[in-house]
């Protein structure tokens, strides 16, 4: 990831997380390596967001830890990201129950110092009271042959998501307002041949176990986002949609009966393509087209 992009993503995270009081000691790590945190003063709400390539998962390991758990210090690792209290991947889409996604260095009787993420994002939270508290975090990236639930590093790119005979749902999340172009969609049950915007005016795809939904919203939990369009037929042609939200998602819902596959391209919306009012109401939803 380029430095400019990393800075852009970090600024975005800071703007979101300052609302939850996490404005200091916030960092974004996109490379492998060893990172040592040394507190110069009490630091009560720190976090580092870690991101890898879409086809990687992240291994985290703590060493040389000098904190005082009995004084209320903590270090916790999380399998995913938490922003504004919302989680990515959504609890609904993650294969582990929420409590198993946290690794707590201070928990007794089973303190944890290693964590392996299920997708290309992970994070670490910590609180230390005494200056000179310190720890080292080793970040390693490992190949993931079947990525499911991905956070894009960049506001433009392309991706192909495949769910081979698995009953699970996978989301590709782009935390920018973007235009998404579906270039290929292949689902088990081919139905008809038209794009159906707005689930409200059509019974939608949820009756057919396999479909793609485009979601828009201003947080990271896909279960809290609004449907922009559903597609439940195979297509090879263009379906494109502008989503003027902070977060745009392509979600593939899979019954496990078929091999489902969706390919898409996305690009950042220009300033003049953004919706004029960005009130967060249902009537005035962030979709622009
Ligand atoms: C996938 O999502 C659909 C619709 O949101 C839901 O009905 C289904 O239970 C989900 N499947 C799994 C395995 O969570």
Secondary structure layout plus pairing:
Blueprint: H1 3-17, E1 26-29, E2 33-38, E3 43-51, E4 56-66, E5 74-78, E6 81-83, E7 86-88, E8 102-104, E9 114-116, E10 121-128, E11 134-143, E12 150-151, E13 157-164, E14 169-174, E15 178-186, E16 196-197, E17 211-217, E18 226-231, E19 239-243, E20 247-253, E21 259-268
Parallel strand pairs: 1-3, 12-14
Antiparallel strand pairs: 2-11, 3-10, 4-9, 4-11, 5-8, 5-10, 6-7, 13-21, 14-20, 15-19, 15-21, 16-18, 17-18, 17-20
The chain binds 2-acetamido-2-deoxy-beta-D-glucopyranose.
2-acetamido-2-deoxy-beta-D-glucopyranose is lined by residues 167-169, 253.
Characterize the structure shown.
- The strands form 5 sheets. This protein has a 6-stranded mixed sheet with strand order 12-14-20-17-18-16, with no helix packed on it. Strands 1-3-10-5-8 form a 5-stranded mixed sheet. Strands 2-11-4-9 form a 4-stranded antiparallel sheet, with no helix packed on it.
- The protein is globular.
- The chain starts with a helix and ends in a 21-residue tail after the last strand.
- With 289 residues, it is mainly β.
- 5% of the residues lie in helices and 44% in strands.
- It has 2 domains: 141 residues, Jelly Rolls (Sandwich), CATH 2.60.120; 117 residues, Jelly Rolls (Sandwich).
- Bound molecules: 2-acetamido-2-deoxy-beta-D-glucopyranose.
- The site of 2-acetamido-2-deoxy-beta-D-glucopyranose has 4 residues, from loops.
- The site of 2-acetamido-2-deoxy-beta-D-glucopyranose (NAG) has 4 residues, from loops.
């Amino acid at each position: 990831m380029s430095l400019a992009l990393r800075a852009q993503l970090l600024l975005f995270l800071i703007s979101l997380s300052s609302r939850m009081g996490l404005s200091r000691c916030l960092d974004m790590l996109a490379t492998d390596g060893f990172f040592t945190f040394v507190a110069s003063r009490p630091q009560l709400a720190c976090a580092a967001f870690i991101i890898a390539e879409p086809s990687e998962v992240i291994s985290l390991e703590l060493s040389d830890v000098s904190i005082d758990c009995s004084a209320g210090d903590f270090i916790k690792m999380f399998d995913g990201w938490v922003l504004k209290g919302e989680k990515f991947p959504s609890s609904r889409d993650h294969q582990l129950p929420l409590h198993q996604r946290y690794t707590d260095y201070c928990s007794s009787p089973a303190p944890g110092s290693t964590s392996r993420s299920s997708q290309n994002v992970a994070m670490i939270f910590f609180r230390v009271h005494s200056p000179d508290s310190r720890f080292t975090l080793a970040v390693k990236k490992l190949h993931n042959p079947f990525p499911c639930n991905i956070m894009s590093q960049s506001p433009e790119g392309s991706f192909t998501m495949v769910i081979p005979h698995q009953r699970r749902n996978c989301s590709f999340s782009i935390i920018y307002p973007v235009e998404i172009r579906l270039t290929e969609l292949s689902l088990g049950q081919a139905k008809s041949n038209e794009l159906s915007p707005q689930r409200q005016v059509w019974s939608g795809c949820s009756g057919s176990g396999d479909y793609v939904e485009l979601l828009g919203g201003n947080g990271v939990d896909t279960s809290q986002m609004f449907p922009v369009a559903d597609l439940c037929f195979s297509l090879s042609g263009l379906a494109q949609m502008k989503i003027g939200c902070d977060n745009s998602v392509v979600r593939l819902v899979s019954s496990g009966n078929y091999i489902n596959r969706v390919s898409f391209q996305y690009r950042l919306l220009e300033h003049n393509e953004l919706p004029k009012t960005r009130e967060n109401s249902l009537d005035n939803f962030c979709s622009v087209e």
